[in-house]
Amino acid sequence: MIKPIIIIGSGLAAYTLIREYRKINAEHPITLVTQEAGDFYSKPMLSTAIASQKSAEQLVTSSAAKMAEQLNLVIHTHATVKQIDPAHQKISVALKDGQLVDIGYSQLVLTLGADQIRVPIDGDASEAILSVNDLYEYAEFRKRLDGKKKVVILGAGLIGCEFANDLAVGGYQVELVDLADQALSRLLPKLIAQALEQKLSDLNVIWHLGTSIQSVSHDGDQLQVMLTNGQIIHADLVLSALGLVPRIQLAKEAGILVHRGIVVNRQLETSIQNIYSLGDCAEVEGQVLPYVMPIMQAARTLAMVLARQDASLVYPAMPVMIKTPALPLIVSPPPIGSSGSWSINELENGMEGLFHNDQSELIGFALAGSATSQRATLTKLLPPILGAT
Ligand SMILES: Cc1cc2nc3c(=O)[nH]c(=O)nc-3n(C[C@H](O)[C@H](O)[C@H](O)COP(=O)(O)OP(=O)(O)OC[C@H]3O[C@@H](n4cnc5c(N)ncnc54)[C@H](O)[C@@H]3O)c2cc1C
After folding, report:
1. Cβ–ligand 1 contact at 81 (below 6 Å)
2. Is the CB of 297 under 6 A from ligand 1?
3. What is the pLDDT of residue 109?
4. pLDDT on residue 111
5. Ligand 1 pocket residue status of 240, Cβ below 6 Å
6. For residue 298, how far is its CA from the centre of ligand 1 (angstroms)?
7. What is the pLDDT of residues 32-84, one digit of tens each?
8. Whose CA is nearest to atom 26 of ligand 1?
9. Which DSSP symbol is given to 2?
10. Does the CB atom of residue 131 touch ligand 1 within 6 A?
11. What is the Rg, in whole angstroms, of the alpha carbon atoms belonging to the chain?
12. Does the C-beta of 323 come closer than 6 Å to ligand 1?
């Protein structure tokens, strides 16, 4: 019997890869194992769906059963992979009913995603701190929001700012807390960040920059949130949005090389033969890029590799849209640690931030409002993130 390709996970990385692979090979058996229900949804929608009152079910665009039928898959849902045994090319899976089974693979793909970063916070209500990184957490967040008014968000990065905008439009009072002295400190130059802060302030978002949350405690029906600067906020809910950390534990326990993410080469192969990885859990040449566009690129390459075709991953410049309708933003940040400087051009209803290195080459940009129309033109001028080898 032919052993299947096994894919662990049912996020964008898993399903995009399978779609690409099925364009090349419609028949080879594929088994997908996922802790979740396996339904297909677009994760970026999670931070823009509260204002429009979408339920978790409404975000699902295709059920697991439909995906299995369309893509000719065997899917094990609510099943957790406990162990990978590379020597015998098999995985141990705890199935929905509690049974532990071994499944053999010809090739194994890890699309395990990433966890939200959580920092220790004092107080007797730390269990009340939520994060939203999948459909279940979204459903829980919506349930807890019911009848409530005020949300404190910890972290003014991409996810924190998107939720702040969406919740404010949905009629909630939002207070945003971040240790940095500006919004989106890893992605935006100060002047454009200030423009975003102003636009969100216009929606009554209150900013607490240069501080963090010390403790969260119960206070009657509400929560008392104490900041490290001593200020106290009363709120109904606290949402933690501090960024992501790749899920590497399963790979590490199997002896696969991990660093910040699961280390893969340009063929998306890990340090162990026939085991591959892509998506938020993977690290390619030191780059962990937890966004949709890198998944698309990697999925196309890996589909070819799994089909035994020659392919090597290339990452062009891949700008990210930040879904803050109060001030639409598109960013392509310079590589971390680049030396150079930002120049900002003020346009009518927009701002164009260009980052040039010391050789005067354009290596990053941040576009706000009307300047977002420059996306395609400027992207062509940027160097690739990973060029052809
Ligand atoms: C709120 C939000 C907004 C975002 N907005 C944008 C955006 O605007 N633009 C953009 O480019 N990106 C955005 N992103 C990032 C983007 O959504 C992610 O990069 C992408 O969805 C990651 O897909 P993935 O398949 O790698 O991981 P995931 O979707 O996290 O999938 C991981 C899968 O692995 C499974 N799994 C893990 N361990 C096991 C195990 N041991 N056994 C079985 N199953 C396991 C999980 O159950 C899950 O199914 C956003 C992310 C969030 C959270």
Report:
1. yes
2. no
3. 99
4. 98
5. no
6. 14
7. 999 999 999 999 999 999 999 999 999 999 999 999 999 999 999 999 999 99
8. 279
9. P
10. no
11. 22
12. yes
Q: pTM value?
A: 0.96
- For ligand 1, what atom is nearest to the CA of residue 43? 17
Q: Which two tokens stand for residue 250?
A: 């399963």
Distance CA 79, CA 95 (A): 4
Size (the chain), residues: 389
* Whole-number Å distance between alpha carbons of 18 and 22: 6
Domains and CATH numbers, the chain: 5-114+244-306 (3.50.50.60), 118-240 (3.50.50.60), 328-381 (3.30.390.120)
**CA 274, CA 118: separation in Å to the nearest integer?**
33
**Ordered DSSP codes for 254-291:** TT--BSSSEEE-TT-B-SSTTEEE-STTEEETTB---S
> CB-side exposure of 362: number of CA atoms within 13 Å?
15
Minimum CA distance residue for ligand 1 atom 5 = 44
Nearest CA to ligand 1 atom 2: 44
Smallest CA-to-CA distance from 11 within 48, 45, 36 is with: 36
Protein residue with least CA distance to atom 10, ligand 1: 291
CA angle at 17 for the pair 54 and 376, rounded to the nearest 5°: 70
Dihedral of alpha carbons 173, 176, 182, 185, sign: negative
**What band does 128 get if pLDDT is binned at 50, 70 and 90?**
confident
For residue 41, report the distance from its CA to the centre of ligand 1, in Å.
Answer: 10
124 C-alpha to ligand 1 centroid (Å)? 30
Measured in Å, residue 300 CA sits from the centre of ligand 1 at 18
Task: Say how far apart CA 147 and CA 143 lie, in whole Å.
Answer: 9
Sign of the CA dihedral running 43, 352, 374, 332: negative
Contact partners, residue 110, CB within 8 Å, separation at least 6: 8, 9, 250, 251, 262, 270, 275, 276, 277, 281, 282
Residue 111, number of CB atoms within 10 A of its CB: 31
Q: Is the CB of 199 under 6 A from ligand 1?
A: no
**Ligand 1: which atom is nearest the Cα of residue 15?**
25
Q: Which two tokens stand for residue 379?
A: 């992207």
Q: CA 266, CA 264: separation in Å to the nearest integer?
A: 7
CA of 246 to the centre of ligand 1 (A): 10
For position 70, what pLDDT does the model report?
Answer: 98
